[in-house]
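Shape matters. As here.
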Amino acid sequence: MKTFIKDFPNHIENAIKIADKSVSKFTLNDISNVIISGQGGSGIAGCIVRNIFYNKISIPIIINQDYKIPKFADDKTLFISSSYSGNTEETINAFHAASKKKCQIICICSDGELLSLAKEHNYNYITIPRGGAPRAMLAYSLTQLLFVLESLHSGSTGINDLKIEMKSISRLLLKKQKEIMKIAKSISSKIGKKMPFIYTYPELEGLAVRFKQQLNENSKRHAFYNIIPEMNHNEIVGWSRNSLCSIPIFINGQSSKENKNRLDITINQISPKVEDLIVIDYDTSSHIEEYFYFLHLVDWVSFFIAENDGVDPNEIDAIHFFKKELKKL
């Protein structure tokens, strides 16, 4: 896992080349909504691009993580089916449902049944490299989604601008990687054996989910996340009592002045009830740059926690066991 995390900036560069060759060939007609179907390490990319395009694109983007798909899906729906292995059960079922509804389909996968189905039905598809766990190959699926949605939003001009920015982000992360690793080690040490409660703004919800998932899979840890302002209406009451076994982590990215004020008040209110808390900042005007920086940072945090705890960040036996039991039904 360490090698894959370290190669994240290079994955971005390689993913740009794949997207650049593929997306320009796609023809999409009169799209009125977007559904992104995927689970786990493949599905999280959909959550992230929904955040990034929230204030850019004028049609709704829905994340579908089920066997079924929404009733409104039709021939004006762009249905993006993302499964790294190409064999994810829920994603395959959703693909068939989208096909029946005559959605305009794009498949993103490395191989498997999904690739075979895309070829069989003559749907658009993008193949990404095999060889890693889905969560370790996030840069590939995420970059494809960014290019597809940017193409839908602003065509070739937007794609060229995105390509320039993504290449710049790749170089930046390579340049800052030692610094990022140092910060991640410090954060992992502060977390120690405590349970992380991750808080951020709606603009970065996908990041919070990713952080939680990486702590689950890489670190073999439970974690929880919530969003400001929502947590101010309920969860903040849970911090009324002293908590010695939990640690709040605030990811302070771009948001409205109102949400920034809420975060400051929340920190001040919670501080007396915990032994420690963590605030993660990054200064940039680019939402995409901020996102990729934080993604790289939290991946390293999950790795260093695994290292500190003496657990294998690659091992996911619990998921393999679950899938075997499912096949018996």
